[in-house]
Amino acid sequence: MESINFEDVCQTHDIPNIMNWQEEQLTPEEVFRHPKFKELQNSFDNNEKHPWCNSCWNSSNPRYKNLTQFEKDCDGLMIDFFCSNICNLGCRTCTPFASNRLIKDENYFKKNNLDILSVTDNFFYQKNQDSLNSLQWKWIKNNPEKISGLTLAGGEPLFIPEVLNTLQNFVDCGASKDINLQLRTNGLFLGKHKKMLSQFKGIYLHLSVDAVDELYHYIRYPGKFENFEKSYFEFIDFCDNIKDIYILSVVNALNVLNLNEVILWAENRLQFVEIIPQFRGIGIKSMSEELLQIALDRSIHPTLSKLINKSLEKIKPNKKKMLKEITYFDRSRKQNFNDYLDRNLIEWLNEDM
Ligand code: SF4
Question: Which of 91, 185, 216 to mutate to test the pocket of ligand 1 (most atoms within 8 A of CB)?
Answer without folding.
Answer: 91
